[in-house]
Amino acid sequence: MLAERDCRPNDFAFTSVLSSCDYLCGKQLHALVLKMGLGASVYVTNSLITMYSKSYKVEEAWTLFKSLSCWSLVSWNSMIAGFQLAKLGMHAVGVFVKMHHEGIGFNRATLLSVFSSLCGSHVEVATAFMKAYSELGGDVSEFYHLFLETSCQDIIFWTSMITALAEPDPAKAFFLYRRLLREGLTPDLYTFSIVLKACAGFVTEQHALAIHSQVIKAGFKDETVLRNALIHAYARCGSIALSKKVFEEMGCRDLVSWNSMLKAYGLHGKAKEALQLFPQMDLKPDTATFVALLSACSHCGMVEEGLRIFDSMFKDHGIIPQLDHYACMVDILGRAGRIVEAEELIRRMPMEPDSVVWSALLGSCRKHGETQLAKTAVSKLKQMEPENSLGYVQMSNIYSSGGRFNEAGTIRKEMDGSGVRKEPGLSWIEVGNQVHEFASGGRHHPQREAICTKLQGLIGQLKEIGYVPEISLALHDIEEEHKQEQLFHHSEKMALVFAVMNEGKLHGGGNVIRIMKNIRICVDCHNFMKLASGFLQKEIIVRDSNRFHHFKDSICSCNDYW
């Protein structure tokens, strides 16, 4: 109409018309665009990309996209949507990654287009997008909410989404799995294995038991990959007995089966069982096998056994020790007080020690009050991971334990000045079907006042039978009474008392209290849990960032070697 009136259409006019064109009409308009010299207009080109994509001419859309000298966010979104319409999911993921390399941000439209492109694709494609999204700093929580907005009914996409959430947010992963079932989808072998991975992040084993039952009903009872996942899940949820039962009932075991069981024993401080199991392996061990064995020796103080295993790696099995193995050996020697030998081992390493190795040495220095060597380890950690608070916190604790509170304060100030933040201590406990989270002092918990009152009473009773607070661990610039109060409100103590207040709702009837903690349990809380287990006549299982502690009859399974 504009042409009939001898009016020259601009790029906005072409953009409007192209939105309603089919392929033939759009092709003619494309020729007119070029004739009128508007081919460089990003607005017109974006509309042409969309037109070609809707006409299933994605090759022509891609050629146009590549011809642009400057891309807008709409350009990227249009091309991703084009690949989505053409059911070329991997190409859509590739464009998404390229966006990041070009410094272009993404919005909800971008993600929804890529989401849709993953429906019907192979699991590798969907997983590739999840991985790319995470590596680009994407918010998994936002990803989760976007997923709930889509209408994708594809089992592969659901499984990939569960995969992305399994470790960072097991609860959301499990929620998606339940929703998957409600949508009428049938989980496959891979879905079950990923859900079991999520189950490993829960406090109790009840979720793993539920999935185990579904695995049997689905006819996957004898699948080795699922039995391996069950061994891992049960062990991480505190039930080494169930892990052992699954392992012993296996008709066919692969290397992962053996390694999973060895690792489970080590995690629960059962090094003797791990060392007895190892000779029974009918498969050639790999590097992971020896990490599991050395970790088990480390947790139990079996120094000579650890040295023997380390020496046998290359001599008997032809396996060259890697960084993980050296870190284990530094930990084994250091925990036993053989810190000089640990340092010498680091110096003899054929590769540069990483942060795990230096962290192992620092932990040993913390345990034995070795200040000078600790400074070296902290210096190395600051260079490798400047935003990691571990070095600062451990050095401050070393000074505090030795009564050098001024130096401890200096370290804290340096940490604050560097903008480094200590990871807050959190504990979780499962009551009924609800997980309760506790921070130090019980902040934000609706029953905080009642919990604190109950805790004060329990502390008083434990003091009568020998509990002495480790006030050297508290900050130096507060009164002794306040130091004790600070220790009393550590998150695991709050979680324990809440469990006692709700013992009738605990999994298993309340005889066993299970607590999960995100950082290492402190000396004071360890002593507290030991005495509380005897006084309350309950088994208390604490899973911290390093291992499991089984407290029963005022004794810990670690024998105070941790």
TrEMBL record:
Residues 466-562 form the DYW domain. Coiled coil: none annotated. GO terms for molecular function: RNA binding; zinc ion binding. Keywords: Repeat. It holds the Pfam family PPR_2. One of its GO terms (biological process) is RNA modification. The keyword Repeat applies. NCBIfam families: PPR. PPR repeats lie at residues 254-284, 286-321. Belongs to the PPR family. PCMP-H subfamily. This is DYW domain-containing protein.
